[in-house]
Specification:
Layout: H1 2-16, E1 19-20, H2 21-25, H3 32-50, E2 62-64, E3 72-78, E4 88-90, E5 94-96, E6 99-101, H4 104-115, E7 120-126, E8 144-145, H5 153-165, H6 175-197, H7 200-232, H8 237-261, H9 270-275, H10 278-288, H11 291-300, H12 305-316, H13 320-328
Parallel strand pairs: 2-8
Antiparallel strand pairs: 1-2, 3-6, 3-7, 4-5
Helix pairs in contact: 3-5, 5-6, 6-10, 6-11, 7-8
Length: 332
């Protein structure tokens, strides 16, 4: 009950801090840069409705300054010799591979308890989350937050499209399906926004950012596959531990080489590689593993968002095994 109490209290506190965007724009005391970003966000929100056929509601029509760097802190955990995330089950949402806390100290405390169970744990800040559009009234709709409003234009668009897409379809037992679908929508929508509305400077800025992200994904997913193959092998646990340590050392060495040779020394991912463990790799898979399947499904839907969403909703409503088989068949 304590966990649910902090979840409800934290969310209500966030909602109480939110103000309608027009009110912030009309306030002479509001920061000029913030006003510009909020105006931009509303153009993106309109684009989400008109071009991406995402729900037209009060989500992201208000703004809240939380006075902290993250909306929530997620705790994820995986076994020492495996990549399958531990799951928790909740009302409305169903089961998910993470546990969120509005207070970082509480998240770290829970992570410590999980480590005592011999699990590998990762705690990371989340800039935004979706309530799936299921809470009644405009006051309960998800607001824009200080945790992401100043992001580069391409990233701001992608986050808004990602979070709203969770309102389109949601499988209560399948984090990987839900997040991969939202990531596919954000990629498709983000590319369209940049092509149609962004300046040349914003597109160049995003290209550099996204290039590093694509390099990061390619590197980490390749090494995730190596770790998964090791864990699924018939080697003894002792041998797996030794080979795992070698693989992680090789991963970090390859990252350092890529950072020096391709990124000009950009160090934005240093923290991730320093803390990388099985839980970290599990989270990456949840957000990216099924994205190519969704992108193919979008193409097979004639690039028609409404047809695409209808098929995704159909998949979300069928049993998980059948859902995965049907989604995988889009590549045939």
């Amino acid at each position: 009950m304590g966990y649910y109490a902090q979840s409800i209290g934290g969310h209500l506190s966030m909602l109480r801090a939110a103000r309608p965007v027009p009110e912030v724009l009309g306030d002479a005391q509001s920061d000029a840069v913030l006003k510009e970003r909020l105006a931009l966000s509303q153009r993106m929100r309109d684009f989400a409705v008109s071009e991406l056929r995402l729900p037209d509601n009060a989500s992201y029509r208000r703004f809240a300054d939380l006075k902290r760097p993250a909306a929530v802190w997620n705790v994820v955990a995986a076994p020492e010799l495996g990549l399958q995330l531990k799951t928790w089950c909740y009302p409305i949402m169903g089961c998910a591979g993470y546990r969120g806390y509005f207070d970082r100290g509480e998240a770290e405390s829970y992570a410590t308890a999980l480590r005592e169970e011999k699990l590998e744990v990762s705690v990371y800040g989340v800039p935004a989350y979706s309530t799936l559009g299921r809470l009644p009234g405009d006051w309960m709709a998800d607001p824009l937050l200080n945790t992401f409003i100043q992001w580069p234009e391409g990233e701001l668009a992608r986050l808004i499209f990602h979070e709203i897409s969770h309102q389109v379809a949601y499988a209560a037992d399948d984090t990987e399906f839900n997040e991969s679908f939202a990531t596919a929508v954000e990629r498709i929508g983000g590319a369209r926004w940049l092509a149609a509305h962004a300046s040349a400077q914003a597109r160049e800025e995003y290209a550099r950012f996204d290039g590093r992200r694509q390099d990061f994904r390619a590197l980490t997913m390749a090494w995730r596959d190596k770790l998964n193959a090791l864990y699924r092998s018939n080697a003894s646990d002792a041998d797996k531990r030794e080979r795992k340590a070698a693989l992680m050392a090789q991963l970090r060495a390859e990252y350092e080489a890529m950072k020096a040779q391709r990124w000009g020394g950009f160090s934005g991912y240093d923290g991730w590689f320093a803390r990388a463990n099985n839980a970290s790799f599990g989270v990456l898979a949840a957000y990216n593993a099924l994205v190519p399947d969704f992108e193919r499904l979008f193409e097979r839907s004639g690039r028609d968002f409404e047809r695409f969403y209808a098929e995704v909703r159909r998949l979300a409503d069928i049993p998980k095994a059948q859902r995965r088989a049907s989604l995988a068949s889009t590549g045939d």
